[in-house]
Amino acid sequence: SGVSMNLNNIFFNFNSDKLLPPSKPELDRLVNFLMDNPAIGVLVTGHTDSIGSASFNLELSGKRAKSVVAYLLNHGIESERITSQGVGDTKPLATNQNEQGRAMNRRTEITIKDIF
Fold first, then answer.
1. CA Rg, the chain, in Å?
2. Domain range for 74
3. In a designed cystine with 57, which of 11, 18, 48, 114 is the match (CB 3.0 to 4.6 A)?
């Protein structure tokens, strides 16, 4: 399955799938890592907090993951090396009862996969 890690500092506005400019340094680090390691593929997983309906959150998390994929594609990473999924609020890291926990649950995760 691979090693999973959170991408830190990936920012979206509330209810939006548009990457915000402060996300660029973290995404560029991922691009550089993938450029330096051409035998590695990644699974990008979008997560949300529990605010809103489950179906909306599932759709939003998928769109956010696809925004990260689009960034990678636009920076020269081959499409066959990248897959994405959204899991909505189904895999929280922390409680959704307070803002700090919800902020931890709104995340983008990458799973490293060997492809060759």
1. 14
2. 3-114
3. 48
